[in-house]
Amino acid sequence: IVDNYALNVHMPGLIIDTNADALEGNMAHWSVVTDSLLYRQYDAWVQARIINTTLLFATLICLGILFSLSTGLWLYRLNKKTKTGMIPGDR
Q1: What are 79-88's pLDDT values in tens digits?
Q2: Over the range 35-45, which residues count as b (16 or more CB within 10 Å of their CB) and which as e?
Q3: 44 and 58 co-located in one domain
Q4: How many domains does the chain have?
Q5: Are residues 23 and 60 in the same domain?
Q6: pLDDT of 18-52, one tens digit each?
Q7: Helices (H), 1-91
């Protein structure tokens, strides 16, 4: 028996590491001689990364709110100093 055992795995996301014989997009391909599987263990592994878009958008919204609040506070303090007759930059 000298047939080949073929294993194809379709991964979600971007493949970042694998021991596959070939890669095609987000597909990993292994081709193993069947006789070698009778005498030893063969490990086929693949690792992929998916971007968590929900967490990304939540982080961007929080950063936007933080930026808006800090800019608003800075403008408020600047406006308060100019009303009291202080020139920005003077202490």
Answers
A1: 887 776 555 5
A2: eeeeeeeeeee
A3: no
A4: 2
A5: no
A6: 999 999 999 999 998 887 777 888 889 999 999 89
A7: 34-39, 53-83
